[in-house]
Amino acid sequence: MQEQESKEPPVDKPLSHVAIIMDGNGRWAEKRGLPRQAGHREGVAAARRAIETAKELGLSHLTLYSFSTENWGRPESEVRDLMNLMRTYIESDLPKLVSENIRIRIIGDKKTLPADIRLLVNRAEKETADNTGYTLQIAFNYGGRDEIIRAMRALAQDISQGAVSPDEIDEQKIASVLDTGDAPDPDLVIRTSGERRISNFLLWQAAYAEYIFLDEYWPDFSRDVFLRAVDDYHARERRFGRRNAG
Ligand code: IPE
Ligand code: IPE
Ligand code: MG
């Protein structure tokens, strides 16, 4: 069989979308003899640093994994702390995000969130909808499989009503019914805390992302740590199944 050489130039490595699994708040706190809640609070400070640095890096999208569909399985008091942190984060930071021209989008199942949080996140999306800076996607009550289930149900509904024909289902169609909609796929997924797994994060979207696993616990995530991860990303060769010229 004739070898098929791509005529395209070597694959370039723009960096538009970084997605982060913010892990290790609990261990950060335990190491200091503090309650886990203190770790989650410091985690919010680290998220603010990441949001600043993303702007500096000129990203178009930053996605932060804040609460997974599996995190409901934690003790009730911890779930309550995490819900409260989301409430206070949006209430305190929304004006700043609006003025910094950042667009907010929540990915995850909004329907099963406490009603007041649902209202808050809807408000955050609405108030920042016309912003033209970068997009901050907060994955909250998010699970990759849950997202695919909800998307497939929506698609099946459209098919059963004759609005979509099965032949129209392709990668673009599936991507468009996911929570991430028209957002580009992440180029880079970073996970902190030394764990090397993806824990149900962006299963469809991160099919060809580069993965960087860092040992730092999330509350220790700084601008420098972020910049180092970006350098590491740029030193890699992305191939997308093709062969680069050489
Ligand atoms: C990440 O930190 C925050 C959430 C998952 C909500 P963890 O709470 O998972 O901290 P560790 O992994 O137990 O240290
Ligand atoms: C992943 O961290 C979810 C978030 C960071 C929100 P977890 O701590 O929940 O993941 P596992 O349980 O270690 O896989
Ligand atoms: Mg964890």
Offer a concise description of the structure:
The chain has one domain (17-234): Decaprenyl diphosphate synthase-like (Undecaprenyl pyrophosphate synthetase, 3-Layer(aba) Sandwich), CATH 3.40.1180.10. Helix content is 41%, strand content 14%.
Description:
This protein has helices at residues 25-31, 36-57, 76-99, 115-127, 144-160, 171-177, 223-234, and strands at residues 17-21, 61-68, 103-107, 135-142, 188-191, 210-213. With 246 residues, the chain is an alpha/beta fold. The protein has a single domain, classed as 3-Layer(aba) Sandwich (Undecaprenyl pyrophosphate synthetase). It has a six-stranded parallel sheet with strand order 3-4-2-1-5-6, with helices on both faces. Strand 3, helix 4 and strand 4 (135-142) form a beta-alpha-beta unit. The longest helix has 24 residues, at 76-99. It starts with 16 loop residues before the first strand and ends in a 12-residue tail after the last helix. The mean pLDDT is 95. The structure holds 3-methylbut-3-enyl trihydrogen diphosphate (2 copies) and magnesium ion. One 3-methylbut-3-enyl trihydrogen diphosphate is lined by residues 21-23, 65-68, 70-71, 195, 197, 199.
User: Could you state the CATH homologous superfamily?
Assistant: Decaprenyl diphosphate synthase-like
Report how far the terminal alpha carbons are from each other.
Answer: 21 Å
Total E-strand runs: 6
Low-confidence sequence ranges: none
SS-based class: alpha/beta
Radius of gyration based on Cα positions: 19 Å
- How would you describe the shape? globular
Enumerate how many helices there are, as a single number: 7
Ligand types: 3-methylbut-3-enyl trihydrogen diphosphate, magnesium ion
Major sheet: size, sense and barrel closure? 6 strands, parallel
The CATH topology: Undecaprenyl pyrophosphate synthetase
- pLDDT averaged over residues: 95
The domain tally reads 1
- Share of β-strand residues: 5-15%
Helix content: 40-55%
Q: Which CATH class?
A: Alpha Beta
Specify the CATH architecture: 3-Layer(aba) Sandwich
Q: In sequence order, what are the helices and strands, one letter per element?
A: EHHEHEHEHHEEH
Strand sequence of the main sheet, in spatial order? 3-4-2-1-5-6
